[in-house]
Amino acid sequence: MKQDKIHKFHKKSRRRGTPPTLAKLRLQSALTGAVAAAVILFISFYFLLTPLNLHAPTLWITAFLATLVFALFNNLTFALGCQGYENEMANGKSSWRELSEKYSLLYFIPLILLAFTILAAFSGISAFHAGAYASLLKVEDAVFEDDLAETLGTDSIALMDTMSAQMLGDREIGSLSNVVSQYNVSDDYTQIDFNGSPKKVAALDYAGFFKWNNNKGEGVPGYVTVDPVSMAAAYQECTSGMVYVPSAYFGQDAARHIRMHYPTVMFGNLHFEIDEEGHPYYVASVYDKTISLFGGKTVKGAIILEPSTGELTRYDLADVPVWVDVVYDGDLICEQYNWYGTLQNGFVNSVFGKKGCKQVTTYYSDDEDESDDVAPTSDYGFVAKDSDIWIYTGITSVNGDSSNIGFLLANERTGETHYYEIAGADEKSAMAAAEGEVQEKGYQASFPSLINVDGNPTYIMVLKDASGLVKLYAAVNVEQYNLVTTAATQAECMNRYRSLLGLGNAAEESTPPADGENAPREPLTATDEAVIRIQDIRYITIDGNTYIYLIDDKDGLYRAKASEHEEMLLLQAGDTAAITYTGKEIVTCTKKTSGGINTDDALAPDGSTVSSSDGENTGDIQKKLPAVTRKTS
């Protein structure tokens, strides 16, 4: 009995120790590797939305990872299957160990794919294709005054930045209790031209996965519009809910919905827009790579998604509907212009000689970053022109100074690009000049817009307090950025700026004053006062009007029209004066000291004395400085 049990045990042991058949183990190994590779492919296509396009680098990276995982799991399964029999013969010709080593050759496939991907990327760099990169963006030289219509009104100037729009949009939605509990306003605001007026628009987003799960049947109910002129936000309810949106999940995700219908198309820049009737759409740009395999990114069309039905329509670039405002995103235009500006005289020149090299203006998000290894980024503003949205940015030399040699204006729908040769301050210097006008208040300037004021290129921007609320508007002359005006409204700011240039306001120009005399300016109301020590005095003639500029010992700048403040001609460097002013326009001026003698002569616009403590005058001391005449077209 005992011997029978021992015999059965040895029989089971021999059966458990029988090596597997070669065909079966190979099949198991291949299936295991295939399943692991399929997981990689699924993640890449469904979650990362990798296009099945040879020009997409992510496809080659996915292929590398999939073949690497296949080889790894295939070899591991085979090695585990023949463990303990490595030295036995598997098929009469080779041992299990030899067959396992042959499977290691599968690792050469992902290595070959990786090497090819690196070589393809290297073959498309600008060093080998400088001319091709420089010709991607067609840039036309244009005349600023002819190309950009004169800005007389203020209803077409879009000044609001995205942060301000977000604050207004959130405030509007916060008042809607049935909406705010389930949805947020998207942070991705789009600047559009809506029936001739600039608008910022953003759709609502689901406030998380569970809010989407509770409302996915009805969809997103509406969107927010923000008027950058009146600073007003409005909630617009859709006639039917938007089901396919970027904040949805799985098949209702807008980008995934597009990928499932266009698996080979390279697309991006998915954003929200509305047509002339206010109907919502999502627009995605279709890209192509035109240099080597991965280089020379450019736009070739657009895909428009109707979010309530999921209907998709693809357009070539020339056929994109006119109500669509953004097909070329601003970052791509800036990148293409940098290729144009630096590579048009060859790659070697862009590295060493740098003759004629220019680029869009760049900035650091934090002043401290300038000393770190942080790459600056480009920034740009928006201009509503010809029912389209154009981006504009300054053009500077590659030396990185704080001045512009010209401006770039590019149509975000068609890619049409114009260059204007205008020397002046860059956007950041203009923003600093505007902030300096109200430095005691600590306001921060938004990125400016570029407008044409009677042939004068002008920056116009908003000044915000620490909470992000718009407090003032500022206009800064591009060519002479010391010419600055600020005001509480856009219209008042423009009128002050035109007066500063000696142009008068639009109403005055349309009805010339009789007898050829200058129409009187509206009296200014002082908003601030200060006692300043005069460091320098300048007399500048602008269109026949002489202005007195006082520069104090803290580099503050104040000015007054000489014909309205004749007694200020007695001031000289070193004097101390008490002034009342608004912006930088002097309303009254009182000389306090002159050569050690105290005075209290208040110099009002009519030349009369406002107050005097001792009745003495300091004498007719006048500093003669060369006049600077500014010509305007």
What does the secondary structure layout of this molecule look like, with pairings?
Blueprint (H helix, E strand, L loop, with lengths): L1 H15 L5 H26 L9 H25 L14 H8 L4 H16 L6 H5 L4 E3 L2 H4 L14 H13 L2 H4 L2 E3 L4 E5 L2 E10 L2 H7 L4 E8 L4 E11 L11 H8 L5 E8 L5 E12 L3 E12 L4 E6 L13 H14 L3 H5 L6 E3 L1 E2 L13 E2 L2 E5 L2 E10 L5 E2 L1 E6 L5 E4 L3 E2 L1 H11 L6 E2 L3 E5 L2 E9 L5 E8 L6 E4 L2 H11 L5 H5 L17 E15 L2 E8 L4 E5 L14 E7 L2 E10 L2 E7 L24 E3 L3
Parallel strand pairs: 1-18, 25-31
Antiparallel strand pairs: 2-4, 3-4, 4-5, 5-6, 7-8, 8-9, 9-10, 11-15, 12-13, 14-15, 15-17, 16-19, 17-18, 20-22, 21-22, 22-23, 23-24, 25-26, 25-28, 26-27, 28-29, 29-30
Helix pairs in contact: 2-3, 3-5
List keywords for this structure.
alpha+beta, 31 strands, seven-stranded mixed β-sheet, six-stranded mixed β-sheet, 633 residues
Structure report:
There is one protein chain. The protein is α+β, with helices and mostly antiparallel strands and 633 residues long. The protein is 28% helix and 31% strand. The chain is built from 16 helices and 31 strands. The strands form 7 sheets. Strands 25, 26, 27, 28, 29, 30 and 31 form a 7-stranded mixed beta sheet that branches. Strands 1, 11, 14, 15, 17 and 18 form a 6-stranded mixed beta sheet that branches. Strands 2, 3, 4, 5 and 6 form a 5-stranded antiparallel beta sheet that branches. Strand 23 (470-477) and strand 24 (484-487) form a beta hairpin. Helix 2 (22-47) packs antiparallel against helix 3 and helix 3 packs antiparallel against helix 5. The termini are far apart. The model is unreliable at 5-16, 367-374, 506-520 and 599-633 (pLDDT under 50).
